[in-house]
């Protein structure tokens, strides 16, 4: 009999709701009530509705993002051979993340090494040729000077002088050509060495390593993909710090300044997280007239980049009515509480707002002076 009395009020609420749906009557508004029940149906738990003053908040919806996100990009073109990490993996500085095919770079380096050997051999040959040209030049110069001396003393003919001078000029040109050949050989060596060094660096770039400690957020490539310079391969969160990025309407932006301490409501975790405004992007979105605000948060277990959160900005004080959360019953979209009226109880329809600890805000239907009753769930 006791159980029957406990749920009598709920049956009245269900009957009223059913009658409203079936008959097509006007919508039941908060504050509507049923007939007063007899005093013998007293709920097992009672409490006074509370009228209190509390902060009023503007809630800017945003997304949790890593404070420091590093995107590791390819520096050379190559086919991806292997991806060593997956999202969520903890990595240390120097950890191998991605391997690229290095065969083409290795082949190029071998060719460059052969070219370097050829260039060095060519330089030695050019050096010997220059030494021979210089020796020939000295001999031709000495012969020209001797013949010229003989010619001046009329001991040699003009034809002898012309022949000696021609040999001297040819030897002089030969030295110049040998010097140019030696310079070209030296330049070839520098070029070949540069190719060898570039190939070695390219081979090193086929092993993509973690630049610092962090957590893998995302992998953008899979084995077989083509890696290109500037194309991201892996994203790392290189510190545990997170931040919420939310858009705040321009009418409230003066209430938010760098260093302002606020709170972020993470609904998934059912908790408020302390946050500090770190940055305000100094221009408004032309369509929404909102400013991007970035608020830093400490690392918290269960809080990950990509989660939704709301940045709570105080905009004033307001008086609200609250009742214990357990006192509110729900039938479909209807919300109701049991209110004491004289010696009896009646079902009062209400509209609830935010939860405040174990209590719930009543937006309409009560004025804060009522006695509320409810039944404790029977676990037996």
Description of the structure:
With 380 residues, the chain is α+β, with helices and mostly antiparallel strands. The protein has 4 domains: 111 residues, conserved putative lor/sdh protein from methanococcus maripaludis s2 fold (Beta Barrel), CATH 2.40.420.20; 87 residues, Beta Barrel (Elongation Factor Tu (Ef-tu), domain 3), CATH 2.40.30.170; 59 residues, OB fold (Dihydrolipoamide Acetyltransferase, E2P), CATH 2.40.50; 103 residues, Helix Hairpins (Orthogonal Bundle). Helix content is 31%, strand content 37%. It is built from 4 helices and 20 strands. A 6-stranded antiparallel barrel has the order 2-11-14-13-12-15. The chain has a 4-stranded antiparallel beta sheet with strand order 3-10-8-5, with no helix packed on it. It has a 4-stranded antiparallel beta sheet with strand order 7-6-4-9. A hairpin with a 2-residue loop joins strand 16 and strand 17. The radius of gyration is 44 Å and the shape is rod-shaped.
What can be said about this structure in brief?
The chain is of the alpha+beta class and 380 residues long. It is built from four helices and 20 strands.
Number of helical segments with 4 or more residues: 4
Please describe the biggest sheet, giving its number of strands, its sense, and whether it closes into a barrel: 6 strands, antiparallel, barrel
Q: What CATH first level of the largest domain would be assigned?
A: Mainly Beta
Spatial arrangement of strands, main beta sheet? 2-11-14-13-12-15
Instruction: Please give the oligomerization state of what you see.
Output: single chain
Radius of gyration: 44 Å
Large-scale geometry: rod-shaped
Low-pLDDT windows of residues = 1-25
CATH architecture assignment name of the largest domain: Beta Barrel
Kindly identify the CATH topology of the largest domain: conserved putative lor/sdh protein from methanococcus maripaludis s2 fold
Q: Would you tell me the overall average pLDDT?
A: 83
